[in-house]
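hey can u run this one w/ pyridoxal-5'-phosphate bound, need the structure tokens asap thx
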Amino acid sequence: MNWTKSQRLYEEACKWMPGGVNSPVRSGKSVGFTPFFVREAKGCRLVDEDGNVYIDYVGSWGPLIMGHAHPRVVDAVRRAAEKGTSYGIPTELEIRMAAGVVEMVPSMEMVRMVSSGTEATMSAIRLARGYTGRRKILKFNGCYHGHGDCLLVQSGSGLATLGIPGSPGVPEEIVHHTVSLPYNDLHRVEQVMQQVGEEVAAIILEPVAANMGVVLPAEGFLPGLRKLCDDFGSLLIFDEVITGFRLARGGAQELFGVLPDLTCLGKIIGGGLPVGAYGGRAEIMERMAPVGDVYQAGTLSGNPLAMSAGLATLEILNQQGVYEELEEKAAYLEKGLKAAADEWLTPMTLNRIGSLGCGFFTPGPVVDFASAQKADTQAYALFFREMLKEGVYLAPSQFESFFVSLAHEKDDLDATIEAASKALKVVREKAS
Ligand SMILES: *Cc1c(COP(=O)(O)O)cnc(C)c1O
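ok here u go:
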């Protein structure tokens, strides 16, 4: 593969943007990768500026559950754009979106649209604090909730990739009220709640963690947190920015049968446009201005292009058999990858749930951030680069997930498995 043009664009980009990128996760620093520049994409395939084609398992980091440039989404956006791109005045589209989301997500009675997942979690935290009159927030190591100040502690995603525990620029006074605990360690949460439960406004988590690679909730973890929140009058917040509409129509809460007080959404809900949302019981949501006194606003919130793309996406996800199809495809890929890892005697722990997965280069098990960090990131980096050469684009970090979409066909999955077998052979040869 030739990356001449991407290389030139990258050098130019670095003159004008820090690291040449608008989000650090794209930089590929940890896997020795210089980002390629995309020209266009369709279905599960990306084409870069040099004309190289890749099977894409990043899917814009989660939103593209139907693949790139789905005709119905493109059509919905085009038609909306012709009628104006933003009004700052209510539209019927927003009602359809809100009603649709409430219908799909079991715990939600009311919703507020925002423009990113970060905004959704920041606003949900403010609401939880306003509603309970308490300050403390309990989160989990390796979970990522966007880059809001008070949640930027022991975070997953780019911070995990770059090995950054927190960030300069976040005053200590602000994170002073944030407690971060090991994921899946209910006993520790119980101990902390015994001590400070009365001060805890909310426990926030990814119900399936997908920003430290993929880590599933242990049996009893989610119900245990639900009970602790009930016992201490704290709110339970599920950050379903990744899991929402991906693991089931109603997200992880439907799948595990545990209902949070507030839910944060993002990614898929915008069908590839910038959208986030948060919501929950009406009694809590009506604490938001203009009904209540907790303030949060947005010039482009409920934007008609974004609502149209999101609605087109949710409509397709409401069709029969969609989640079965995703499960079938992802299970097929998992089986193939496991066989390839076995063939080349590579210790790999493959954590997967539905169309969300991660192959950790460690014998495992991977159940929290500490065990995820045991993964051999050098081996992953080599694997990533070999896969890229074979025309498969994985996340440029061991601590991110792969996303299977409806656009991945059996031939694509077979090609991926074949590429993985070649790549793992190289990893094996380097190791010995
Ligand atoms: C991506 C993500 C966010 C942040 O969403 P942005 O749209 O990038 O601000 C928050 N929480 C989770 C679980 C995410 O995966």
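The radius of gyration is 21 Å. anyway lmk if its weird
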